[in-house]
Amino acid sequence: MKRDKIIYYVTTGLLSALMLFSAGMYIFNHEMVSELFTSFGYPTYIIYPLAVAKLLGLIAIWNPNFKALKEWAYAGFFFDLILAFFAHYMISDGGQNGAVIGIIFLITSYIFNKRK
Predict the structure, then answer these.
(1) Backbone angles phi and psi of 42, in degrees to 5
(2) How far is CA 16 from the centre of its chain?
């Protein structure tokens, strides 16, 4: 039981660090992210709402009172990371490795959240 909690907190912490870094890039390096989104073919007006959604998702994952919202946050992060993987893969910029690492953290966090 204690091992499961440790794995959950470590992987959720690493996932949180990845999402905080991503949201921070969206907010503080908007010009660079706008160029990247344009190269993907995505509209740039979704950058700030996506950053806010990532921050709200982290709040939902870390708050034990938000059971249903936690499920939605995990689902939202899953779709975000899957789409990020394919966006980077399609333009062959090598950025898909970060998405794969994020998916591993996400799945591990989700599984051990159920066990703890």
Answers:
(1) -90, 150
(2) 7
Please tell me whether residue 66 adopts helix, strand or coil conformation. Answer: coil
Q: What is the pLDDT of residues 57-113, one digit of tens each?
A: 999 999 989 899 999 999 999 999 999 999 999 998 888 999 999 999 999 999 999
Cα three-residue angle 49-52-54, rounded to 5 degrees: 110
Determine the structural domain holding residue 87 and report its residue range. 2-115
The 3-state DSSP class for residue 95 equals coil
Q: How far is CA 31 from CA 37, 48, 84, in A?
A: 10, 12, 18
Q: Which two tokens stand for residue 83?
A: 């789409």
Q: Is 0.85 surpassed by the pTM of this model?
A: yes
**Number of domains forming the structure of the chain:** 1
Tell me how far apart the 2 most distant CA atoms of the chain are, in Å: 46
